[in-house]
Amino acid sequence: MWSILLMALGGLLVGGAISLRRQKAHKSWIVVLWVLAGLSLLAAYMLTLR
Predict the structure, then answer these.
(1) 20 to 30 A Cα–Cα from 47, which one of 5, 8, 9, 19?
(2) What is the pTM of this model?
């Protein structure tokens, strides 16, 4: 259950990063969203191994 929610959160964060990139937002916001998305997907993967 939690892994599905974390994967959905990761997808939303990736979409947000892509959206901010198209809007020419500051690079730091884009990098932060990509890092958070990666961590969310990593956490979801770790929960599936458990």
Answers:
(1) 19
(2) 0.89
